[in-house]
Amino acid sequence: MEDIIKEVLVTEEEIIKRAKELGAEITRDYRDKDLMIIGILKGAVIFMSELVRNIDMSVTIDFMGVSSYGKSAISTGEVKIIKDLDFSVIGKDVLIVEDIIDTGYTLNYLTDNLKKRGANSVKICTLLDKPERRKVDVPVNYLGFEIPDEFVVGWGLDYAEQYRNLPFVAALKEEVYNRG
After folding, report:
1. Model-level pTM?
2. Residue 105 near residue 69, CB atoms below 8 Å
3. pLDDT of residue 96
4. Which of 4, 12, 26, 153 has CA atoms 20 to 30 A from the CA of 168?
């Protein structure tokens, strides 16, 4: 993997520790609520798995598949739902779990969409945040790590559907994603 990794930004140990801290915060904040956790496919799955194991209360889990990137490495700003929820959000307190917030387009759209569907509240938990890239202001209620403007892989994040299984978050060497 040394030939593709520029730099490890967040280690496995740091992620596990932060997921425990976030799980405790979420448990405290939602103790008497009907919490529905919505993971954004595919990137958030690994982080969400670690996070929910650290939430000490009953929760409902569902998933959405969305895209604002298409086949590009740059967001188009147009959000498309690829896989919708299996369950209703009416009357639920919703926590969206995302792998990374970049431009903010996707989460801005999803937050508005879920509120219109009847959710009591919609908050955001993300493993990673790249505030330098933000185009739309979205409130991040639970933050794992702020990272620099790098193309990152690992712990669920991919490049061309590869490298999601890396046990850390790393910046990808530019020559890897600019090959062609």
Report:
1. 0.93
2. no
3. 98
4. 26
Kindly list the catalytic residues: 102
Q: Do 92 and 120 contact (CB within 8 A), yes or no?
A: yes
SS3 content of the chain, % helix, strand, coil (to 5): 25, 30, 40
The residues that bridge with 38 in the sheet, in sequence order, are 62, 96
Are the C-beta atoms of residues 129 and 99 closer than 8 Å to each other? no
Domain count, the chain: 1
Whether the upstream peptide bond of residue 42 has omega within 30° of 0, thus cis, is yes
Q: SS3 for 104-121, per residue? A: CHHHHHHHHHHHHCCCCE
pLDDT at 74: 58
Let me know if residue 74 belongs to a domain: yes
Q: Domain holding 133: CATH number?
A: 3.40.50.2020
- Reduced to 3 states, what is the DSSP secondary structure of residue 2? coil
